[in-house]
Design goal:
The protein has 386 residues and is of the alpha+beta class. Helix content is 31%, strand content 26%. The protein is globular, with a radius of gyration of 21 Å. Bound molecules: flavin-adenine dinucleotide. Flavin-adenine dinucleotide binds next to helix 1, helix 2, strand 12, strand 17 and helix 11.
C-alpha cells in the first residue's frame, strides 16, 4: 500500500485531537485526522457539553476563555451547535453564597464578566427552580453549551471545506515509527501514513499504543454515570446549570478566601461521597435534560476494575437530588450511559514527546470540552515553534 503524506497526523478525533487538527489547518498545514471508530464515541461525545471556564483554575480558565472565542468564531461560519446561554452556579446555603460572592470578586479582577443574582432573580430567570433550594446564583453570560453528540462530527464536516484536511474513520493506528526524515503511523490493515509530526490524542484508550509508558504514568481512569430525562418541552432551563456540590468541587472556588473553612463537602451524605456525585443539568434543544454525574476512579493499568454496569441507585440519587433543585414536567429516564476520561494524579495533563516528533497529549481530565480548543492552539504553536 502506498504511504499517504502529511505535515501532521493527529491520532484520535475527540475534542483534543480535533482542535489540534483545526489549528494546524489554520496554519496552512496538510493534516490527517485518524479515528479508530466510524466517528468519535468516547468522552468527547458522552459529556454534558458545558463549556465552563468559570469552573477552572486560572491557568485553565485562560485556555477555556480562548476556547470560547474559537467556538463562537466557528459557529459564525458553520453551525456546530453552540448556544450562548451562559452558566449559573446555584448556591443552596450561606457557605455557598459566600463562595459565589468571592468568585464574583475574583472574576472582576480577572476581567471575566459575571453577575450575582438574588434568589428572586434566579427564580425569574429559571422559573422551575425550587424556592426551597436556591439562595442566590452567580451567572457567567459569556459561556456556551454544545450538543456533544453532534458537535465533533459537525466540526469534521466544516474542516472538510479545507482541501488540506483528510479524515480517516475506522482506522486504528497500532504502531508509530520514527524513520530517517519522517514519522510513520501504521494502521491495523497495514496502511502507512507519513508526516513530519504525529500528535497522539487517544483519550483513555492507551493500551494499544505505548503500553509501557502509560503503565508507568500516574494516569487514572474516571468513570462517570449520566442520564437523559425525556420530554420537558414546556420547561426552559437554558445554559449550563451547576449546583451547590459543584461549587464545592470545582477548582476555581479553591481560590476563594472562605474555601479552606468550608464544612465537609458531603457532610452526612455518605452515598454522594462514595460515588463522587455532584448535580449538573443541561437541557438540549428538544427539551430533554442531561442529568449527572458520579465519579469512580481506577489507576490506568487497572482500569478494568471499573464496572461496566450502570447502577440504578446512582440514577435514583440523581433524580431525588434533582427534584430538590428543579420542578420538572417529567423525571422519566430516556437513556443512561457511562463515560470515561483520564486524568493525571500529580499534573493537570499528560504530555510526552518521543524521538522529537511524536507528541502524546492526553489526561486532560474533566475539563476537555472547555479547554481543549484553547490548549491545542498554544500546543500547535509550541510543537511547531511558530
Ligand atoms: C460523562 C462526562 C461528562 C463530562 N462533562 C464535561 C463538560 O461538561 N465540560 C467539559 O469541559 N468536559 C467534560 N468532560 C470531560 C471531556 O469530555 C474530556 O476531557 C474530553 O472529552 C477528552 O477528550 P479527548 O480528545 O482527550 O479524548 P476522547 O474523547 O476519549 O477521544 C479520544 C479518541 O481517540 C480515538 N483513538 C484512541 N486510540 C486510537 C488509535 N490507536 N487509533 C485511532 N484512534 C484512536 C478514540 O476512538 C477516541 O475517539 C466530561 C467527560 C465525561 C466522560
Amino acid at each position: 500500500m502506498q504511504a499517504k503524506e502529511f505535515d501532521l497526523i493527529v491520532i484520535g478525533s475527540g475534542v483534543l485531537g480535533t482542535f489540534h487538527a483545526y489549528h494546524a489547518l489554520n496554519r496552512g498545514m496538510k493534516v490527517a485526522l485518524i479515528e479508530k471508530d466510524s466517528k468519535p464515541i468516547s468522552a468527547s461525545v458522552r459529556n454534558f457539553g458545558q463549556i465552563v471556564p468559570s469552573g477552572m483554575n486560572p491557568k485553565w480558565q485562560r485556555y477555556g476563555r480562548k476556547s470560547l472565542k474559537f467556538y463562537k468564531k466557528i459557529q459564525t461560519e458553520f453551525d456546530i451547535s453552540i448556544r450562548q446561554n451562559g452558566s449559573i452556579y446555584l448556591a443552596s446555603n450561606e457557605e455557598e453564597l459566600n463562595l459565589i460572592h468571592e468568585l464574583h470578586h475574583i472574576n472582576q479582577l480577572n476581567d471575566y464578566p459575571s453577575e450575582l443574582l438574588s434568589q428572586e432573580q434566579c427564580i425569574s430567570k429559571y422559573p422551575s427552580l425550587q424556592t426551597t433550594y436556591v439562595k442566590g446564583g452567580l451567572f457567567f453570560p459569556e459561556e456556551v453549551s454544545v450538543n456533544p453528540r453532534e458537535m465533533l462530527c459537525k466540526i469534521h464536516q466544516f474542516l472538510k471545506f479545507n482541501g488540506n484536511f483528510s479524515f480517516f474513520p475506522n482506522t486504528a493506528i497500532h504502531e508509530i515509527n520514527t524513520l530517517s526524515d519522517q514519522t510513520e503511523a501504521v494502521d491495523t490493515a497495514g496502511n502507512s501514513f507519513l508526516a513530519d509530526k504525529v500528535i497522539v490524542c487517544s483519550g483513555e484508550e492507551f493500551s494499544l499504543l505505548f503500553p509501557e509508558l502509560f503503565k508507568k504514568s500516574d494516569l487514572e481512569v474516571v468513570k462517570l454515570q449520566m442520564l437523559r430525562l425525556k420530554g420537558n418541552k414546556s420547561i426552559k432551563i437554558p445554559g449550563n446549570i451547576l449546583t451547590g456540590l459543584s461549587i464545592r468541587r470545582y477548582e476555581s472556588f479553591q481560590d476563594c478566601p472562605s474555601y479552606s473553612s468550608l464544612s465537609d463537602q458531603y457532610n452526612h451524605d455518605y452515598f454522594a461521597r462514595k460515588w463522587g456525585v455532584h448535580i449538573l443539568f443541561k437541557q438540549e434543544t428538544d427539551g430533554s435534560i442531561i442529568l449527572g454525574d458520579s465519579h469512580e476512579y481506577a489507576d490506568a493499568p487497572h482500569k478494568n476494575a471499573l464496572s461496566f454496569d450502570n447502577r440504578s441507585d446512582i440514577n435514583q440519587y440523581f433524580i431525588a437530588e434533582g427534584k430538590k433543585i428543579f420542578e420538572l414536567e417529567s423525571w422519566e429516564i430516556d437513556t443512561q450511559w457511562a463515560g470515561y476520561y483520564t486524568q493525571c494524579k500529580t499534573k493537570d495533563i499528560l504530555q510526552k514527546t518521543i524521538d522529537k516528533n511524536i507528541h502524546i497529549v492526553t489526561g486532560i481530565g474533566g475539563k476537555g470540552m472547555t479547554a481543549s480548543a484553547g490548549f491545542a492552539y498554544e500546543n500547535i504553536k509550541k510543537i511547531f515553534a511558530i
